[in-house]
Amino acid sequence: MARSTSFGKDTGLQVRMLTTMLLLGLVYVVLMGALVYSGLPIALVVIGVGALFALQYFSSEALGLRAMGAREVSPQEAPELHAMIERLCIQADIPKPKVAVAYTHMPNAFALGRSPQHATVCATTGIMELLSPAELEGVMAHELTHIANRDVAIMTLASFFASLASMIIQFGFFFGGGHSDDDDSPGILPLILVSVVVYVVSFFLMQALSRYREFAADRGAAIITGRPSALSSALLKIASGMERIPKQDLRSSEMAAFYIFPPGLKSGLGNLFSTHPPMEQRVEALGRLETQLQSGR
Fold this sequence. Notes:
The structure is a single chain. By secondary structure, the chain is α+β, with helices and mostly antiparallel strands. The protein has helices at 11-37, 42-67, 79-92, 125-130, 133-149, 151-174, 189-225, 228-243, 279-295, and strands at 70-72, 98-102, 109-115, 118-124. The chain has a domain at 11-24 and 66-160 and 199-295: Zincin-like. The protein is built from nine helices and four strands, in the order ααβαβββαααααα. A four-stranded mixed beta sheet has the order 1-2-4-3, sandwiched between helices. Strand 3 and strand 4 (118-124) form a beta hairpin. Helix 5 (133-149) crosses helix 7 (189-225). The protein starts with 10 loop residues before the first helix and ends with a helix.
């Protein structure tokens, strides 16, 4: 099969990531201002928020792997998976990330990391048992495209602001959300309102970017492997396999946005607030790309 389409930067994704970063920066300034306005010392705000940001940004890999019950594996422990990742990295011209395995029946895969030089790609035992080698290759190429596009770091930033705003909201309601005893202090209610806005903005920024980045990663995987149909087949199998997994084994939580296929993905209005586009749309897009690759356009 001729590969007439080169694997490279997705302009649409780059524009969306830049826009998301600028809007997140604005959100950051507004939230910091609200914290200071509520009566907290500026130094405490800067140090506290900065420390939380650094903790999430630099430890997101370890935290994500721990949440999934995954661990890094050596080439001796998973020779076939390592060989596949190494081959795909050569084709995509990116550094080989660390390789991890999550020991769960849930068929899924995800990528974590702040840059191509500091990244981990993970597959579950469930997905390795479910898919054929060609299908698994398509899935892992999808995750490697996320790393190459650097969209994982942007998603980590967006989730940080949503998490921070959620913490402030919970803290505020726990302590009543009213005025403080100090007449000169505006109380915590304005901070709660700003945090609600920050949470909503961060949430929708994540939704918009996450859906597009999935299409971009599907496209990248199809180009790297030259077999869009293999990824389409993998998505259909994963969706079918997910339905047979007990609900208590579906570790959706904050990791859902990073999976190749999130647990509980619904069609119709049920998909309105999902981090991923409907599976049918992804399969259709891969079908069009298959036609383009076969025709040499």
